[in-house]
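Please, structure for the following, as tokens.
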Amino acid sequence: MTKETKIIVGVLAGAALGATIALALSSDSNNEVKDKLSDWFSDLLDSSKSKLSGLADRASDVADKVKDKITEIKA
């Protein structure tokens, strides 16, 4: 991911978080909208956690391969 893409994703995530918090804290008593936004945000967090977990696993695998190669080179 390029630097610009990371910045855009961060800005969009921040905007989504801000909008969700603003609606959750608003004095509007429309619980249906709040519940839908809460569910959407929860799903977003869950999917982000699973993607990050997968990324961490892949990074760990690559690090192990690099360590193995370094060990082979030193031997």
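Residues 3-74 form one domain. Helices lie at 3-25, 31-74.
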